[in-house]
Here is the input.
Amino acid sequence: MKVIETRLPGVVIIEPKVFGDQRGFFTETFQQQRYAEAGIDLPFVQDNHSRSARGVLRGLHFQRTRPQGKLVRVSRGAVYDVAVDINPASPTCGQYVGVELTDENHRQLWVPPGYAHGFCVISDVADFIYKCTDYYFPDDEGGLLWNDPEVQIPWPVDDVQLSAKDQLNPTLSQLLAQGQ
Here is the structure.
């Protein structure tokens, strides 16, 4: 597998080896030893699968006291996936990494604990699969406004569909003033 460093500490893009022929393809989506060698050595405790239609934007989410690392990928369709550094002590606070994940490029994104994460669907439908390093605790969830003018994420969808909760997420400045 190929591991591509990004400008955010610990956030990496993974390109697994894909073996294909006229019958289809095979790829390992996770192998503990290889991923540990790439610096992803936290234990995974939960796998999630969501299906969304074109224009759905989920995020930007994080957990406040029990942060989750997420290894994300797409098994059907395409998404624009984003990790945002929300650590006020980090020199990259407020910066993001965005990458297109598709069922054809087989790319994965490792989002370490402590980052805000979200994605928007750019195909008709997308199945989004992710492994988490901690359990989901609804009372611990926080969010960052998807179109924060300070972060300036160039989402590739004009008419996004958001949950009511995500429409109310604070900006980065508000979030940092709250102490997360």
